[in-house]
Design brief:
alpha/beta, Isopropylmalate Dehydrogenase, 10-stranded mixed beta sheet, two-stranded antiparallel sheet, 12 strands, oxidoreductase, Isocitrate dehydrogenase (NAD+)
């Protein structure tokens, strides 16, 4: 009998239901793991119907099951409610955001780890006399726990280097605290090389020589920007997976938006969410299944079967069917 894992599914906005449906179908192929999904709701579309961005029962379900697969949310710029992502991460204290930026064909294998609840993400803003202010937050606790997570993950993943990305030359207190604490935590990991780099020079180097980077540890805002830069190196925003984590919960998603203009067209790229499911499998200890899923995705791309955003002609469902075929073959010969 397969191991049954209970989890929460939040389909989200825009293309969310389409990419979620094919991803859960792909996960159902594994013979030794069976997911029992409970659907819950959140996001802008839900808010516009019920005037509630993230229902309490959604948060409670994630706390109880500790496993969640989430679609993208739509968020207006400069108006409207806060992002549902902001609510979920803050309410559940999902302090780790982990985003692998990987392309073996391009020699890129970066693990980006950013703090997920502090920095400008606290969204503490006000306006006085025509001047807008935003508060940047850094706490000893917040800096220490994300640094500890990053170095432990690097050690457990047999990675050799952690680069601390910062702007401590200018923001000497907040970014200075982050840098000092990260270096202090990292000093206990004797087998890991530590370097630090200013965020502006790092972005240039990352484009020119991405193969020089292994683990990048940074604050929230810088990490968000580096994630999108990394997606560009791979070939598109839809190719990067994301995991929001604390000591009890793992919530995974694609690191991209809801693309409302593509809703219902069956052309959205589900790669980010599929690869995020591999992170989920790995976090649950299903390492062989995680590797098979990643290999299946690599094989499909190697066969030049891609959705339109990557230059191909496959629909969402056609792409997913190819993943299923590859996965069944890998399972058969495992």
């Amino acid at each position: 009998m397969p191991e049954i894992i209970e989890g929460v599914v939040i389909k989200g906005d825009g293309i969310g239901p389409e990419i979620m449906n094919v991803t859960t179908e792909i996960l159902s192929i594994f013979p030794d793991i069976a997911f029992s999904w409970e659907e819950k709701y959140a996001g802008l579309e839900y808010f516009e119907k019920y005037n509630e961005l993230v229902p309490l029962e959604t948060l409670e379900a994630i706390r109880a099951k500790r496993v969640a697969l989430k679609g993208p949310f739509t968020t207006y710029s400069g108006k409207g409610p806060r992002s549902a992502n902001w609510v979920i991460r803050r309410e559940l204290d999902l302090y780790v955001c982990m985003r692998p930026i990987v392309s073996h064909s391009k020699g890129i294998n970066i693990l980006l780890i950013r703090e997920n609840t502090e920095d400008l993400y606290g969204a503490i803003e006000w306006e006085i006399h025509d001047v807008a202010h935003a508060l940047k937050i850094a706490s000893v606790k917040g800096c220490r726990r994300i640094a500890a997570y990053a170095f432990k993950k690097a050690q457990n993943s047999q990675r050799k280097k952690v680069t601390i990305a910062h702007k401590a030359n200018n923001l000497k207190i907040t970014e200075g605290m982050f840098l000092d604490i990260a270096q202090s935590v990292g000093a206990a990991f004797k087998n890991i090389h530590i370097e630090d780099q200013l965020i502006d020079s790092l972005t240039t180097d990352l484009i020119i020589q991405p193969g020089n980077y292994d683990v990048i540890l940074t604050t929230n805002t810088f990490g968000d920007i580096l994630s999108s830069l990394g997606a560009g190196l791979l070939g598109g925003q839809a190719l990067v997976p994301s995991a929001s984590i604390n000591d009890d919960i793992v919530l995974v998603e694609g690191a991209h938006g809801s693309a409302p203009d593509l809703k219902g067209e069956n052309i959205a790229n589900p790669t980010g969410l599929i690869l995020a499911s591999a992170i989920l499998l790995e976090e649950l200890g299903a390492n062989s299944e995680a590797q098979m899923l990643r290999s299946a995705v690599e094989h499909v791309y190697a066969n030049n079967i891609m959705t339109a955003d990557c230059g191909g002609q496959a629909s969402t469902t056609e792409f997913a069917e190819e993943i299923k075929k590859e996965l069944r073959t890998l399972i058969q010969y495992a």
